Amino acid sequence: MSLPIEVDQQQPEITKAQIPLETTDFFNQIIRELSGALQEIVGLNEAEGFIALVANRIGEKVNSDYKSALHLEQIPRPLLADVLVDLKRRIGGQFSVEYEDDKVLILKNARCPFGDRVKDRPSLCMMTTNVFGRIAADCHGYARVQIDRSIARGDTDCRVVVHLAPTAENDVNGKEFYRVR
User: Fold this and answer.
1) Is residue 153 a contact partner of residue 80, using CB atoms and an 8 Å limit?
2) Above pLDDT 70, what percent of the chain?
3) For 159, phi and psi rounded to 5 degrees?
4) How do the domains of the chain map onto residue ranges?
5) Average pLDDT in the 119-140 region?
6) Considering only CA atoms, which of 150, 128, 117, 130 is closest in space to residue 36?
7) What's residue 124's pLDDT?
8) CA distance 83 to 75
9) What fold is seen in the domain 21-178?
10) What is the pLDDT of residue 8?
11) Residue 67, Cα to own-chain centre: how many angstroms?
């Protein structure tokens, strides 16, 4: 049998203690530490591969959620940029369309959903690459996503280019995605 513990009335109540801890920040810290551990242990390329696997699954789920919510079998091309910007807004990013035509979408971002926790964690850019790539490829049949600038790499903003058609130069920058059905 345990004995009651005396509480020192001079000490503040634990629930009122000023501890900077809340759900989103906590999960962002977990993601930062996981990606950092991966980058340190297996290297950046392999860390990006692991994160890409997770992001691909998330991309499929988010794509399905948008199609269901909008009552669509497929996101139409004219709505693609709006969907990509909206999904990032919903998770705390600040994306906007810089340029758009039938062959390319260029999006810029002033605030990463991971906040400052993304700094020095470029492997986390695979989240954007794969989620955007999976949704764009499902919509258009093909996508190649490249990140020209990123907050994670120390830039002041992000610039994400989503190619909607293969290019003749077969650019090695970026990652290709195809519709799977």
Assistant:
1) no
2) 91
3) -135, 115
4) 21-178
5) 95
6) 117
7) 93
8) 8
9) Muramoyl-pentapeptide Carboxypeptidase; domain 2 (3.30.1380)
10) 59
11) 19
